[in-house]
Specification:
globular; Aminopeptidase; 6 helices; 7-stranded mixed β-sheet; alpha+beta
Length: 193
């Protein structure tokens, strides 16, 4: 993601096992019923259908190799968001997207969504689906921008408060596919001076 529109630049990378503690902390800060670190480790090491990515804070990734050489151990990456989906045949089920509270409102969630959908299309997905809380209008509006439509409701889906979930799906073809490809290109184009 470039620094346009006042957004701090962020990089997308595959999630690594070393990222799990930070991801679990963002999960805890974002959701009333967070996943456990064990769940993330399982997804990364045991679930062949799982695809998880992270958003990295700027500057640290380029210094990672230098820090590793200086301290003779891997340097931690600063994770500011993450997302994951499961690919089942030609359908991507987005299971989670979250941004650290200090980085919200800066386009990180959109970058994660676009990156996950782009990755899923690259793996042959022609449809994406997800559940979102009825009360989470910000997320719903973002999903609608990328072709997601409400196709159902899961009553009392969220165990913490019994809130309903909207089931939303998007066909990753035609105009939606073109919009995703164009947005992915624009978000991943390096800044020019």
């Amino acid at each position: 993601m470039n620094g346009a529109n006042g957004h701090r630049p962020v990089m997308i990378a595959p999630m690594e096992l070393a990222d799990v503690p930070q991801v679990a902390e963002i999960d805890r800060l974002s959701f009333p019923m967070p996943w456990s670190a064990t769940s993330y480790r399982y997804e990364l090491t045991q679930n062949k259908a799982a695809h998880f990515i992270v958003a990295l804070a700027p500057g640290l990734e380029s210094k990672r190799g230098l820090l590793a050489r200086l301290f003779r151990q891997p340097a931690a990456r600063l994770i500011v968001g993450y997302a994951g989906y499961w690919l089942v045949v030609d359908e991507a089920h987005i299971g989670t997207i979250a941004t650290h509270p200090h980085w919200r409102g800066q386009g990180v969630g959109e970058l994660l969504l676009v990156s996950v959908l782009h990755d899923a299309m690259g793996h042959g997905a022609i449809e994406a689906k997800l559940e979102v809380r009825v009360g989470n209008r910000v997320a719903q509006n973002l999903y609608r921008q990328y072709g997601f439509d409400e196709v159902g409701r899961r009553k009392h889906y969220y165990r913490d408060n019994g809130e309903d979930a909207l089931l939303m799906t998007a066909r990753l073809e035609g105009a939606v596919r073109e919009r995703l490809l164009e947005k992915h290109r624009s978000l991943h184009t390096p800044e020019t001076a």
